Amino acid sequence: MQQKIExxxxxxxxxxxxxxxxxGASCQFDExxxxxxxxxxxxxxxxxxxxxxxxxxxxxxxxxxxxQGTKVRV
Amino acid sequence: MSLEAxxxxxxxxxxxxxMSFQGNLKESPCMDILRLAMKKVIEERGVKLDxxxxxxxxxxxxxxxxxxxxxxxxxxxxxxxxxxxxxxxxDAYGNAGTKGKAICDEINQNYNxxxxxxxxxxxxxxxxxxxxxxxxxxxxxxxxxxx
Lengths: 74, 147
Hints:
- The structure holds two protein chains of two kinds.
- Helices cover 31% and strands 30% of the residues of chain A.
- By secondary structure, chain A is of the alpha+beta class.
- The longest helix of chain A is centred in the middle third of the chain and has 15 residues, at 26-40.
- Chain A starts with a strand and ends in a 9-residue tail after the last helix.
- By secondary structure, chain B is of the alpha+beta class.
- Helix content of chain B is 33%, strand content 37%.
- A four-stranded antiparallel beta sheet of chain B has the order 2-3-4-5.
- In chain B, helix 2 packs across helix 3.
- The longest helix of chain B is centred in the last third of the chain and has 26 residues, at 97-122.
- At the A-B interface, strand 1, strand 2, helix 1 and strand 3 of A face strand 1, helix 2, helix 3 and strand 7 of B.
- Strand 2 (15-20) of chain A pairs antiparallel with strand 1 of chain B.
């Protein structure tokens, strides 16, 4: 699956970043890596908000809620 | 899992660069980005990069790098503080504050866009950027990286 990072930079220099197409914790890794690299490039980015998009992804939400091995009546 | 994040930003030269480029910060990677960010302002507003700005009495004040534009010939200067923080300076006397601040915001936004594009490239993404104006006339840049 294609991974995508969409960054919107407004006039005040605030960043809004949307990470999509990730599986598991690799998204958090890229988020931290991107911040580390920005700091190396002289851009100190302070987190104002950070949220998982699981709630907007029904298939993932379902997978999260049902523990492995649980029997599901169809 | 996917994420949404928002950040406030400051331009701060990292300590490692402050140490290794001591006395010659003009050659540091951060200064390269700042130069590019200022050049981009000149492309849109005209005139030149310089190493000074002018106050309302015509006095020339030296700085690390500056930008002088057609609509703000006094210019906006940039310096690096001891802690690495990049500061912009201009004389706001006589209604010049709005123009000076607009140029600072534009440099800051350009710096962010260039840094984000470089960071995404380092992470192995193919990067593209698009500039648009919002309905209220604000300039917004979207950088998209795909891998």
